[in-house]
Design goal:
single chain; 208 residues; alpha+beta; Pili subunits; six-stranded antiparallel beta sheet; 31% helix; 31% strand; elongated
Amino acid sequence: MIRSGGGPERLAGADLEDGFTLVETLVALFIFAMLVTAGAFVLGNSAEAARGVEAVSDELQALQRTRAALQADLGQMALRPSRAAGGEERGALTSGDRADGALLAFVRYGPDNPDGEERPALQYVGWFQTEGGLERRAAAHLDGEALGAGALLLPGASGARVQFHYRSGWSDTPVETVPAVLPDAVRLTLTHPRYGAVEQLFLTGAGA
């Protein structure tokens, strides 16, 4: 004998029991919305962290580039006076009013020449504290020309101070003697917006 498993009414009831109620659907949508919101929050924080890491990396690279440029300039310092645009003599190493307001200005050997063009073997350079930060300037010609437009190497740096070391000790200004002598080392102190007080010591060509 074959027995029926139920009529149409039984089948309809089974369909209702296997489906989702409105409350269950709303709860599922709510949970999904919470997951989407949490995911967006995590992604936003990750992007913000990435931007912060990039900013720190850029500032550290700027500090390293500045140190490398100063090291290259001071390590090639030459005991050679030059002449300004008006013809007046500039000392081998000057600072302040005698260097057009530069922290220090001097002649160096061997400026970079990546193009292999005909250029003098000496270059007059100066380092300045400006409103934007620490800036390097160079003259296109050794004599008869002022320092040109600057390159801002360390943005945000402030309170820069330079000291010069001779056999007698440290001096806030270049020591003028006859015959002239170069300092053994130069000390630069400044305030960086992220790293605070920074002090760096460089050997010159005379002290290397």
